[in-house]
Request: fold
Amino acid sequence: MAPRLKLFLPLLIFAIMAVFLFRGLSLDPQAMPSALIDRPLPEFELPVLGQERLLARKDVIGEVALLNVWATWCVSCRVEHPYLVQIAAGGVPIYGVNYKDEDAAASRWLAELGDPYRLNIADRAGSLGLDMGVYGAPETYLLDAAGVIRYRHVGVVDERVWQTILQPLYRELVAKGEAR
Amino acid sequence: MIAAVRVALLSLLLMSAGALAVIETYEFSDPALEQRYQLLSTELRCPKCQNQNIADSNAPIAQDLRKLLYQQLEAGASDEQILDHMVARYGEFVRYRPRFAGATAVLWLAPFLLLAAGITIAVLTLRSRKVRTGEAASLSVDDEQRLRKLLGETEKNS
Reply:
């Protein structure tokens, strides 16, 4: 290499690093693809929140639906709750997984803040959460009509998340189901 | 001032001791199982607090994973089965030593490629430097005479 060109080597290295670092600014290091995408929702046998009646996988599948993992100890869950109520009012079926929580506290929460859920699975020990690869509430899963997990969103579902990510996928899955 | 710093450091120490005490202990039926537990819990990564293994983390999910690990070890699962079980739920991410596959090939091969690149650069640099010093050693006749003269002068002066 000509000596003159060699002088530009640091600049070149800087430029390459700048590209990668700039890319890093918009990456979320916490974002992790679920290992269960395109895999069936795991089998489970857990009680309905506040009851002894047992629920199984077949009770929550059958149509395209959201499965929302929540708990009363989870601050972000409180933030997203009003929006879930709004989505549910719009006719989207939402099932709840009350994750490592106390039934009494959870029932009080639903009575006070509104209940967007069709059914709530009381996962008191977090066993279903483990099988689904949940690592922190809130998490929201999109299930298709066959009970296959199609998407997972970790964190608060707000208007932006719903309108840009979840709703398009939801509509697509519903349309696919109707076409069949 | 120094006393205040000492008190702060001491309380930090005490606090960390308290934090360690929270981590639960398991009774193993076989010491060999306990050894495998220690090894596996340092090799599994906590999905929530991403730069800690599950042995070091206090996150609820790490506690759950330790419990799961304990139960599976006691149930007689092999290391491979346990790791597969974890990876099926949390992805390749939970392993601090991911297996060699398409997506992780860069991870495994990059150090060797960088080493090879480093050696190549070092060899090339050393070789070109040798050539240059070789040139410098052979002075032209004029330069040599000048050098002798200069050296002779300094010897006289000293």
About this structure: Chain A touches chain B at residues 29-30, 32-36, 100, 126, 129-136 (CB under 8 Å). Strands of chain A lie at 45-47, 54-56, 65-70, 94-99, 120-123, 139-143, 149-154. The radius of gyration of chain A is 21 Å.
